[in-house]
Amino acid sequence: MIIDFTFYNPTKIIFGKNSLDKLEEELNNFGEKILFTYGGGSIKKNGIYEKVIAILNKCNKKIIEFGNVTANPTLDKMLEGSKLAKENEVDLILAVGGGSVIDCAKGISATAYCEGEVFNRYWIRREPVTNKTIPVASILTMVGTGSEMNGGSVIRDVKQMIKEVRKFPVECFPKFSILNPEFTFTVPKFQMVSGIFDVMSHLMEQYFSGNDDNTSDYMIEGLLKSVIHSAKIAIADQTNYEARSNIMWCATLALNTLVGCSKSQDWEVHAIEHQLGAYADTPHGMGLCCISMPYYRYIYKYGLDKFVRFAQVIWNVDGQGKTKDEIAREGIDCLEQFAKDCGMVTKLKDIGCTREMLPLIANSSILGGAYKKLNHEEILHILEQCYE
After folding, report:
1. How many CA atoms within 13 Å lie on the side-chain side of 234?
2. How many CB atoms lie within 10 A of CB 213?
3. Which end of the chain is flanked by fewer CB atoms within 10 Å, N or C?
4. In the predicted structure, residue 161 carries a pLDDT above the cut 70
5. What is the tens place of the pLDDT at every residue in 57-71?
């Protein structure tokens, strides 16, 4: 562990089949007015909405509903929530849904009492949050983003055609998150496997950096193995509690900042996908899946030893009689085959992206990388490899 770090995470995780029973106890720690934030209505179909409403009423809370938060939440929708939260002087934002709903809730928390152009201030220029924030809590219904235990908020400004992440300070982390794996059983298979690749991508973005002997890398390898093992079971039986619970906990651990400790990290795949999402409004995990393999095939030589390790430790690639280059490439091939076996999308043309979008996406995706910093032409080349 050669890079200094400070680790702190204030989110309380309440995990398991009976975790919703703890909601009443947690709500007693907050004021009367609750901004009940949720997505497109699936929680009304699967019964979660009624259960939460009943508990809120039992606790004598004043409920201000804020629904229809979409995937890839927009700035306009977030600002609508911010206005509602401020006007009603809410005491808690309770986000019930997947990562998009929780991301939007954190954005509302940070911006309800902010003056000026909040997106440019907080997402583009990343100014410190000095205004009052509103506590956030979450009840997770879809696995993938890890938003239930971090300060990340990904918001899409459709006017500027920018989808950007802001890592907010601990004040905007959920105060508590309720994780019941059974709440994810009704998520369609397409969304489930999209979330699974999102989890894997979070782990790989942190893994593919550095050449030191780092405890975090061993933790990442264990989580990747768990996700891969449980994904195969969950795809065959979406109501397998053990598999779904393992995937849910892996998703949380993948992005609660723990396994990133003392890591330089990459995040270029996410930077490219965020701009893909700005133009094509793609399912996030599937966009990551399309980009990852071509990206890794382009950069693996710059971090060859780590890619060899990935192939052998994660995919059990036999290195006998093979060069390091061959082993590394075989590991990436194994990743791609796993994605296909799971029914994930591997080509951008299949998730709403057009060829005309590629140069525009490449214009705004340059981040930093870990093993290699890419330029516009290199990103465009990778996107062309992702397309078809």
Report:
1. 32
2. 9
3. C
4. yes
5. 999 999 999 999 999
C-alpha to C-alpha distance for 1 and 360, rounded to whole angstroms? 39
DSSP per-residue letters across 150-164: S-EEEEEETTTTEEE
Rounded Cα–Cα distance for residues 223 and 212 (Å):
19
CATH, domain 12-184, list 1.10.150.130, 3.40.50.1970, 3.20.20.70, 3.40.605.10: 3.40.50.1970
Write down the H helix ranges in the chain: 23-27, 42-45, 48-58, 75-87, 99-111, 118, 189-207, 215-236, 241-254, 268-280, 284-299, 304-315, 324-341, 358-363, 376-387
With 0-12 CB in 10 A as exposed, 13-18 as middle and 19+ as buried, what is 302?
middle
Residue in the structure block whose two tokens are 């894997």: 200
At 65 the three-state DSSP class reads strand
For the chain, give the percent of residues with pLDDT over 70. 99
- State pTM to two decimals: 0.96
Q: What is the mean pLDDT of residues 359-384?
A: 87
Q: Is residue 363's pLDDT more than 90?
A: no
User: Residue 20 contacts by C-beta under 8 Å, 6 or more apart in sequence?
Assistant: 51, 52, 55, 139, 178, 180
Mean pLDDT within 23-31: 97
Instruction: For 17-28, give one letter per residue: b (16+ CB within 10 A) or e.
Output: eebbebbeebbe
Ramachandran area for residue 6 (φ above 0: left; ψ -120 to 50: alpha; else beta): beta
Residue 156 tokens read as: 């899409």
Domain boundaries, the chain: 12-184, 189-387
d(Cα 362, Cα 275) in Å, to the nearest integer?
8
- Amino acid 235 reads I
CATH number at 189-387: 1.20.1090.10
Helices (H), 132-283: 189-207, 215-236, 241-254, 268-280
* SS3 state at 136: strand
